[in-house]
Amino acid sequence: MSDLVFPIVFPLLAAAAILLLRRGAAILALAGVALSLAASLKLLRAIASGDSATLLLPGLPELPLRLTAEPLAALFSVVVAAVATCVLIYSVGYMKRESGLPRFFALMSLFVAAMQALVLAGDWILVLVAWELIGLCSYLLIGFWFQRPEAANAASRAFLYTRSADLGLYISIFILIGAAGTSQIAATLNVDGGTAVAAGLLLLLAAMGKSAQVPLQDWLMRAMAGPTPVSALLHSATLVAAGAILLIRVAPLLAPNVLLAIGLVGGITTVAAGLIALAERDLKRLLAASTASQYGLMLIAVGAGVPLAALLHLLAHAAIKSGLFLAAGEFQHARGGTALERLRGVGRVRPWTFLGFALAAMALVGAPPLSGFFSKDAVIAAALSAPNVAWLAPLALVGTLLTGAYLARTLRLLWREREEGESESRPVAGACWMGLGVWVLVIPAVFLGLTFGPIEALLGLPGPEAHGTTAMLFGLLAAAAGLALGWLVPAPRLLGPFHPWAQSGLVIAGGLTFWIGRPAMALAYGCQRLERGLYATVLSVGRGGLFIARGCGRVERGLYAVVLGTGRASLAVAHLVRVGDERRIDGLIFSLVAGVRGWGDRARSLQSGWIHHSLAISAVVTAVTLIILLSASLSF
Q1: How many CB atoms lie within 10 A of CB 163?
Q2: How many degrees, rounded to 5, is the angle at CA 40 between CA 38 and CA 43?
Q3: Number of Cβ within a 10 Å radius of residue 54
Q4: Is 396 in contact with 308 (CB distance < 8 Å)?
Q5: Of 167, 191, 456, 624, which is the most exposed, with the fewest CB atoms less than 10 Å away?
Q6: What is the Cα–Cα distance from 434 to 92, expressed in whole angstroms?
Q7: 270-284, 336-350, 410-424, 438-452, range with the lowest pLDDT
Q8: What separation in angstroms does the CA of 298 have from each of 31, 158, 383, 450?
Q9: Where are the strands (E) in 497-627, listed by range?
């Protein structure tokens, strides 16, 4: 068996074993992702040494499924497995007091397997299958506490938003396969003209749904109703990353006007989501808005024609954001919630976790020499070297400034002295596992920048052409200004009249929830009612049909009995007639004939021809006649 399948198969087997055994779920899930990480590292090592491989699997006629080992796919595979391993280590402590652990760990394992299939897929059909699987797993994991109305609502909203955008992926795949005559991704990237433009715009729509880009960002903030490990995995290496990974992989296909659209969507998102994060009052929702903003920066890099910069920021962001979420989960257990007011001063109670959170936050801001400094520098340099620099560069710098502002505000609140009457901290069960998961991710968040040089050499992708020093200076100034503003100026004062609007999620005229979400839900409710009505109608018609059929059956059985009785009676009558005909009428006729013959013979014997015989007979007859007449006259 090819080494290509092992990163997928190990977590898949773990999920199956958990569902079958229903015990030892955490150990089985950890073993599955750890083996997947080992297989991914082995694959990356083979690719780095110059090997490459493609594995064909049974699929549709003339459209086999492909797994491809190439540098970008192998690198993504390592990132997915590494983050998943750390998140599952953390989950052992975080979920210690929760029920439904087999379901949780089985879904997490399946989620990892699906994401591994997505990044290693070499054809569009397999991409589509993996895309659907991660969508299903995210729906089930966001709604893990489905008994809570907010969790069920968040899962439905995420499903609705992402599924609507997924139509773009479906249509673009049909277009690409139809134009190239094959489902192999590498071959479809060579199409050009109007086909490439249409496919690129539709792929952008799909990426906007998964990566929560404006105007489809709302579902990501509401998805915080799920468990914190799910949020960490969603935001760093699986669902939300899938949109950016998709655009990075299809970068050779993207036409200049499509690149501009991608850059503008990313730029608007990084600013809008940054403003929302700055006004947010809940730590997990703030981090969710931050995720949308950072993926906006990645789209700016893709739109600038430098997917390598987007890739570097995606790698740094995976470690940084998962570390931030895991630390936030520990704060949540310590204070019983994630509202920033409730978390005030929690950093002083849990200093090691706060230190990890602060390091990851500074890396995301872009402070040197942390990983985010190098990746954000690459994004800003890409924007400065882009043909559309007038649009992309200001948006990227404002996004960087806002990153510093909302993270400085968060750090200040977490470290601020607790006031009298505010929430008390409480012991955290499983704190060792949770702390281990946080720090295993904080370490790469700090030092990952040292690996960017070898990664660039491995991938062989072009970097920004120039403006390295300028980008670094602009980036540092923007990050420093953001940190100062966020630390010194309260958010309401900083945002001014826009603060309430930012707190509402920058909703315009009710937002997509009013214009699309509610009509869609109303349509779904109407379809449900129609379905129920049709079901009731069909059921009534069926019951009526059954009643008629039963009546017809009874009539048929009656007619059958009547016909059978009539036939039997007819047969009996016919038998009697035949018997009577044979034994009575024929006998009577034969007796009459015999009698007539006898009388004829006797009458013939009287006709002797002698005169005296005739006279004697006449005399006898006359005498008898006279006697009769006399008897009759005497009687009168």
Answers
A1: 14
A2: 110
A3: 15
A4: no
A5: 624
A6: 8
A7: 410-424
A8: 32, 21, 10, 20
A9: none
Of 497, 468, 328, 483, the C-alpha closest to 385 is 468
pLDDT in tens, 472-519: 999 999 999 999 999 999 989 989 888 888 888 877 766 666 766 677
Residue 624 to residue 630: CA distance in whole angstroms? 10
The label of the residue with tokens 């709302």 reads 218
Instruction: Give the residue among 262, 546, 529 at the shortest CA–CA distance from 392.
Output: 262
* Nearest residue to 36 via CA among 97, 92, 150, 113: 113
Burial class of residue 553 in the structure, from the number of CB atoms within 10 Å of its CB (0-12 exposed, 13-18 middle, 19+ buried) = exposed
* DSSP summary character for residue 238: S
User: Which residues, in sequence order, are bridge partners of residue 53?
Assistant: 69
Residue 190: phi and psi, rounded to 5, are -90, -5
Q: Residue 488 and residue 86: Cα distance in Å, rounded?
A: 35
What is the pTM (predicted TM-score) of this model? 0.79
| pLDDT digit string, tens, across residues 56-66 | 887 777 778 88
Q: How many alpha carbons fall within 13 Å on the CB side of residue 80?
A: 35
3-state secondary structure of 306: coil
The span from the CA of 16 to the CA of 25, in Å, is 10
Over 60: is that where the pLDDT of 636 sits? no
Contact present, 261 and 298 (Cβ < 8 Å): no
Structure tokens belonging to residue 33:
């992702």
Structure tokens, 320? 């940084």
Extract the tokens encoding 223: 């998805």
Residues 6 or more apart whose CB falls under 8 angstroms from that of 89 comprise 30, 433, 436, 437, 440
Handedness of CA 158, 209, 310, 365 (dihedral sign): negative
Look at residue 102 and tell me whether its pLDDT is greater than 70.
yes
Which stretch of 152-161, 289-298, 320-329, 600-609 has the lowest confidence by average pLDDT?
Answer: 600-609
- DSSP-derived letter for residue 422 is S
Amino acid, res. 576: L
Q: Write down the pLDDT at residue 606.
A: 67
**C-alpha closest to that of 284 among 344, 326, 346:** 326
Predicted pLDDT at 511: 65
Q: What is the 3-state secondary structure (H, E, C) of 311-367?
A: HHHHHHHHHHHHHHHHHHHHHHHHHCCCECCCCCCHHHHCHHHHHHHHHHHHHHHCC
Tokens 């006359």 belong to residue:
622
Site of tokens 């607790």: 418
In the chain, what is the straight-line distance between the N-terminal and C-terminal CA atoms, in Å?
A: 136
pLDDT in tens, 565-605: 998 998 988 888 787 777 667 777 778 888 888 887 777 77
Quote the CA–CA distance of 384 and 468 in Å, as a whole number: 9
For residue 194, CA distances in Å to 133, 190, 241, 302 come to: 31, 13, 28, 20
CB 392 within 8 A of CB 267: yes
- d(C-alpha 76, C-alpha 390), whole Å: 32
Alpha-carbon separation of residue 311 from 75, 119, 378, 484 (angstroms): 10, 13, 10, 29
How high is the pLDDT of residue 1? Answer: 52
